[in-house]
Design a protein that fits this description.
Layout (H helix, E strand, L loop, with lengths): L2 H66 L4 H26 L6 H26 L5 H22 L5 H32 L5 H24 L2 H11 L2 H15 L10 H91 L11 H8 L10 H58 L3 H27 L14 H9 L8 E5 H5 L3 E3 L1 H20 L7 E8 L2 E8 L6 H12 L11 H13 L2 E6 L5 E7 L4 E3 L3 E2 L4 E2 L26 H14 L1 H6 L15
Parallel strand pairs: 1-3
Antiparallel strand pairs: 2-7, 3-4, 4-6, 5-6, 8-9
Length: 706
């Protein structure tokens, strides 16, 4: 049987079974079961919230009695007793609240307000008991807010319920609203009866509570089952209900400005009894809602279990067929996958990475190197899997062959760079030597200035030659014998650029630690690195803009900052520059962007950290972190013999150049020579050149001439 038929038979049965049963039935049933379980927890919490609402009303009523008149000991004891009952039910509420596996967004904010209000209850009660800073309106309002949030939570539970349960949940919430509005009416009437006359505001509060009762009762009657409406109607009738109705009508007939004539004790007794009967109805309704939700949850769970069983049976049949037909094929595919994965992510990247080194091929040709790498996949058989394995081997061989060809081409290009740079270096050295000879015997200021210009151009040509050597993986054969101060290295770097007049150099290292100098074997490469960075900064700055170069100590090393106010870099160009610095060996555009490639290679040789920060039209800041290995101390160097002394290790490391770094060239001139040349220049021709308006000559580049 061909691989195509095996795959078709292997995929067809599980696809039909899983998609047909699981996707259409099981997923829906599981979701409904989970939702019904969560709804059951929410309804249980809502029932506890209803009990807590009634407790808060009784506590609020007791606080009203204490705040309207000086409280008695019995009233205080009664308030504490009611507070204890509220706390007990609040503890049950918190337990139910913690059992919620997830809090839906439509009432998460309400629950958060309720949690905060319950935490603030002890402080509210303390105000009631002490009477200090207790305002009757503020106290009752805070109780009202808590009760309103509890009622709001009960209403919002129905938002996530299925259609068959939504009506019952809304009716239960409206019944809770009825009891809350009746409680507000009771409090409002008691407050109105305590005043000398009925104020318009108090009358509005009483009428608002009565209207709330009517609206909530109408909403309840519209959505509640007939049995629930019967429970509610029976709770309203009777001798006690008649007394409440009569007193309520008496208060309703009282006009603003008149005294409310009411037996407050009888009103309180009748209203409490009325609320107790409504509370019993609310409890029965909540129990019925909880039972309905639990029945719905159980039905959903049973349906889910049945559908899951059918899905499992179908999947079992599909798995059996798949194992019977697909085990050998799967085994071969797994072996092929493992071998291809190993080749793609391990052996092939390792082989390509090894080719990044220079002369990595040795004497082998690219084809010989690729053949020696061997096959990535062991091929067995002649079926489609074996054919794929052969194709993977061919791809692996072609990739390694191509990488080897590129490595060979890169080695040839590097050799060409080195050969051209060596030849140009000899010519440049000869040119500089000839210019030096001419300078020594020249007295005419104009011609001497022209010779100095040629000297500077030759110095810049030498930097270009050294850049080619570095790109080719080599350095100058000459090695400097003496270390230099950080300031001299930076000045040497400035002398190698075209627009040296724009650069300001400041070295805090030489000011704070005169004994700290740059190791001799690293001075030339560091001067070259900074010359490239400073040259780039001046090239993208306005002719009159200044470029600041500051060297500051940092731990056992130093940080050199190059700051310009030029054009800056766009985010894309900044990312490209950082990538070129991070991986200079893979910079195939090194000749087009020689500066950054050279900087990256020198930095990799000596472990130098370079950070570039830039923004369009805001300039660029380059921070160069020099490690301790770059520096040595003057006391560790024998200036008479020009060699390092054998001394005890200091706090500043004096490690030699890394083995990966080629020998640095001696591209700095002797400091004494510079001082003499500059002094003679200032005395003999400085005034003449200033009068002619010609630019100052560049500072010599501190090169030791061979």
């Amino acid at each position: 049987m061909s691989l195509a038929r095996k795959l078709a038979l292997l995929v067809a049965v599980p696809l039909v079974a899983v998609v047909g049963f699981a996707a259409l039935a099981l997923v829906t049933s599981v979701g409904q079961a989970v939702d019904s379980g969560r709804l059951a927890d929410e309804v249980a919490l809502a029932r506890t919230a209803g009990v807590l609402t009634r407790d808060l009303h009784r506590e609020r009523l007791a606080s009203l009695a204490m705040l309207q008149n000086p409280p008695t000991d019995d009233q205080r004891a009664e308030f504490r007793r009611l507070s204890g009952e509220t706390d007990a039910h609040a503890a049950g509420y918190r337990v139910r609240r913690a059992e919620l596996s997830a809090v839906p967004a439509h009432f998460a904010e309400v629950l958060a307000r309720i949690d905060t209000a319950l935490e603030d209850l002890p402080g509210l009660r303390e105000q009631v008991l002490s009477g200090e800073h207790a305002n009757l309106s503020a106290i009752t309002f805070r109780y009202r807010i808590i009760a309103a949030d509890l009622a709001t939570f009960r209403e919002r539970v129905s938002a996530g319920a299925p259609a068959e349960l939504t009506g019952d949940l809304r009716a239960a919430a409206q019944l809770s609203r009825i009891t809350e509005y009746i409680g507000l009416q009771q409090i409002a009437v008691l407050r109105a009866a305590a005043d000398p006359y009925l104020t318009p505001a108090m009358n509005d509060e009483v009428q608002s509570a009565r209207a709330g009762v009517v609206d909530a009762a109408y909403a309840f009657s519209q959505g509640a089952p007939p049995a629930w409406r019967g429970w509610y109607d029976r709770a309203r009738v009777g001798e006690n209900g008649t007394a409440v109705q009569l007193m309520d009508d008496s208060v309703a007939r009282t006009q603003p400005g008149q005294k409310v004539t009411l037996d407050t004790a009888a009103w309180t007794t009748a209203m409490n009894a009325h609320l107790d009967r409504l509370g019993a109805v609310e409890q029965r309704v909540d129990d019925a809602v909880v039972a309905s939700v639990e029945d719905y949850r159980d039905a959903q769970l049973l349906r889910t279990v049945i559908q899951a069983g059918a899905v499992v049976a179908t999947l079992a049949a599909a798995v059996a067929i798949a194992i019977w037909l697909g085990a050998p094929m799967i085994r071969g595919l797994r072996q092929l996958r493992g071998a291809a994965h190993s080749a793609a992510y391990e052996s092939l990247p390792a082989a390509v990475f090894a080719l990044r080194k220079r002369n990595s091929l040795g004497k082998a040709t690219p084809k010989e190197y690729a053949d020696a790498a061997g096959d990535a996949v062991v091929v067995r058989g002649t079926d489609e899997i074996a054919q794929v394995g052969k194709a993977v081997n061919e791809l692996n061989h072609s990739a390694i062959h191509l990488a080897a060809q590129q490595a060979a081409m890169r080695d040839q290009v590097d050799s060409m760079f080195v050969a051209l740079a060596r030849r140009a270096e000899r010519l440049t050295s000869a040119l500089i030597s000839q210019v030096d000879l001419t300078e020594r015997g020249e007295q005419d200021p104009d011609r001497l200035a022209a010779l100095f210009t040629l000297d500077h151009l030759a110095t810049r040509m030498r930097r270009t030659n050294n850049s080619l050597l570095i790109l080719g993986g080599e350095g100058s054969a000459r090695v400097r014998k003496e270390p230099m101060s950080c300031h001299d290295v930076l000045k040497a770097a400035v002398s190698q650029i075209a627009r040296y007049q724009q650069v300001d150099v400041h070295s805090e290292i030489d000011q704070q630690n005169l004994d700290l100098v740059v190791a001799a074997e690293m001075t030339d490469h560091l001067a070259h690195l900074f010359a490239e960075l400073i040259d780039n900064a001046t090239a993208f700055s306005a002719p009159n803009a200044r470029v600041a170069v500051v060297a500051a100590p940092s731990g056992n090393g130093a940080v050199v900052t190059v700051t310009d106010k030029g054009l800056g870099l766009t985010p894309e160009k900044l990312a490209a520059a950082r990538a070129r610095l991070a991986d200079p060996d893979q910079d195939f555009g090194a000749v087009r962007a020689m500066g950054l490639a050279v900087v990256g290679r020198i930095a990799s040789w000596y472990g130098i950290d370079i950070e570039i920060g830039s923004a369009p039209r805001q300039g660029t800041v380059v921070k160069v972190g020099l490690p301790a290995r770059v520096f040595t101390r003057r006391t560790d160097f024998d200036w008479f013999h020009g060699q390092a002394k054998a001394a005890a290790p200091s706090t500043i490391a004096t490690a030699p150049s890394p083995s990966s770094a080629p020998s640095a060239g001696a591209d700095q001139r002797d400091s004494a020579k510079i001082s003499g040349v500059m002094t003679a220049f200032a005395r003999g021709i400085g005034a003449h050149r200033t009068a002619n308006g010609k630019p100052d000559r560049p500072t010599p580049d501190l090169v030791e001439r061979s």
